[in-house]
Structure formats: C-alpha cells, structure tokens
Design a protein that fits this description.
Layout (H helix, E strand, L loop, with lengths): L1 H31 L15 H7 L4 E7 L7 E2 L6 E2 L1 H13 L2 E7 L2 H9 L5 E5 L8 E3 L4 E10 L16 E5 L3 H9 L4 E5 L5 H7 L4 E5 H10 L3 E3 L5 E10 L4 H16 L2 H8 L6 E2 L8
Parallel strand pairs: 1-4, 1-5, 8-9, 8-10
Antiparallel strand pairs: 2-3, 5-12, 6-12, 7-10, 7-11, 7-12, 7-13
C-alpha cells in the first residue's frame, strides 16, 4: 500500500513540475513577443536604434498645433492640450516605451518649424510639398475640408468667384490652405494673418472680401460673428498626417507610418474624434505600408 501511495505521489510531483515548466516557457514567450502588433499580426518593432532616432532626448517631443480645432484644443477645465493629435502622440510614446513631452504652438507655421528644425520629434500637419522638403510624412489619418467665408451680402456665391482681381483673402500664415492658395490663386490677393483663429476677426476688421480656413473653425466663427456665411463647396481637402524630421532615418519613418495605419485600422482615430466631439472630419483611407 505504501509503495502504491509513493508511486502516486511521484506522479503528482512530476505533473506539477511539468505544469510549472510549461508556465515558465509560456511567460518567457510572452516576454519575447512584441507588445504592439499591426492589424495583420506582424509586429511593429521599436528597437533601441529606432527609439533613439525618434526620441534622442529620452522623451518623445510632440509638436501640437492648437490653431486647428480638429486636431487639438485646450481643455476648458484643466487648460491642458486635448484632441486626436494629443491622443496619437501619447499612444506613440507608449509604443516606444518613453515619456511624452508636448510642445504646444498656436499656429501651424510654428509647429512645422519646430519639427523641421529638430526642436520636436514628431508633429501633426497637413501634407504639403513645401513642408515635405524637411519633414517625412505618413499617409493621412484624418481628412478635413478647407472652405471660404464671405459677408452675408457679398456677391460671391461660388469658389470660382473668389479668384477675381480686387478680392482680398484672409488666411492663416503658413497654414496648409495658405500654401495651397499661394499656388492656386491667380488674381485674388492673400492677406496673411498670424494665426488661423484670428482669420475671421481680421476679415471683419479690415473689411476683406473672403476668409479662408478649416471648415470647423469657420463654422465656429460664423456662429459668433454676425452677417457672414460659408460658401457651400470646399475648395480643398486637407490631408492631416504625422511627420518627423527627414534626418531621423528610414526605420523611424517606417515605424511612424505603420503606427498611423494601425491607429486608423483599429478604430483609435475614429474613437478619438468622437470622444472629443469632432464633426465633419473623416478617417483617411488605409494605405499599404512596406515593412
């Protein structure tokens, strides 16, 4: 009887040892598996060299533009920056395993300059060929509209009527729509204003013919300024993307592109827009990224 009991005890000990070994192996496998994966299951790898290229100071410095209300605003209670660009910046810092440092600006031009001059590591901008000379862009994550605003009694009814001799068009200096209209307008003259938020006020104060801007910003301004209206059609679709200095290397740029595609595919971007109450902006279509 004792012999039988001993054999049973040894079997139990052996089974327990096997279970323990399997548990250890499973834990080690989990440690070796990348924490973040792309939608198709392939890993978004952030090796030490790529992390160093993306966050050379040990923190991810994210340039945040408060001049575009679709991307970022200040929380009315805390005063801190909030919005889809802030959410994306924090998520990317988490992927890299580093702390986030938000570098906040009131205008797109300042935000772009910070990244172009290596004073920030990533930023959130509309894709434009001029900016692309110093910044490597991802595919867009959000699409928004650029629209015109005129006085209620203006004879201008369509976009085509804006580009006429004598028309003065207020734009935010260095904004995506400033760069676009600089190339596209042949007869109307641009009046550049320091920030996008000040465009409509300058339009009113200077008695200009047209104000150009992000549709959501113009709609908010139209709600507070009397006797103005938006033209019905957008004059451009603004492709909002993430970007980093071109000197950070191909691996860093590739990882950022993969990250943006995953954030779109997973629903992260759509959920962030909804959480911050952003209407009229759409998540950009998926783009195949080479790994």
């Amino acid at each position: 009887m004792k012999s039988i009991q001993r054999r049973e005890l040894l079997k139990a000990i052996g089974a327990a040892a096997m279970i323990s070994a399997l548990a250890v192996a499973s834990a080690r496998a989990a440690e070796d598996t990348p924490r973040n994966s792309a939608k198709d299951g392939s890993p978004m790898q952030a090796d030490k060299l790529t992390i160093a290229a993306l966050a050379p100071t040990g923190k991810l410095r994210a340039s945040i533009n408060l001049g575009n209300p679709v991307l970022a605003n200040r929380d009315s209670v805390t005063g801190l920056p909030v919005g889809v660009s802030v959410d994306l910046a924090r998520a990317f810092a988490k992927l890299l395993g580093v702390d986030i440092e938000l570098v906040v600006f009131d205008a797109a031009l300042k935000s772009v300059d910070a990244v172009a001059k290596d004073q920030a590591d990533i930023g959130f901008f509309a894709i434009d060929p001029l900016r692309g000379e110093s910044i490597a862009f991802t595919a867009p994550y959000v699409l928004i509209n650029g629209n015109y605003l005129v006085r209620a009694d203006s004879p201008i009814r369509t976009n085509d009527e804006v580009d006429r001799p004598g028309n003065l068009v207020a734009v935010g200096k260095g904004s995506a729509y400033d760069l676009y209209l600089t190339r596209e307008l042949r007869h109307a003259q641009l009046v550049r204003v320091t920030t996008s938020q000040a465009v409509v006020d300058s339009f009113v104060e200077q008695r200009l013919e047209v104000a150009a801007g992000v549709k959501q910003q113009l709609e908010a301004d139209a709600a507070r300024v009397a006797n103005v209206r938006l033209l019905p059609e957008s004059f451009m679709v603004i492709q909002q993307a993430m970007g980093l200095p071109r000197n950070r290397g191909d691996a860093a740029a590739s990882l950022l592109r993969q990250f943006v595609e995953e954030m779109k595919a997973s629903g992260f971007v759509a959920q962030s827009l909804a959480r911050h109450g952003i209407k009229g902006a759409s998540v950009a279509p998926a783009v195949q990224v080479q790994r």
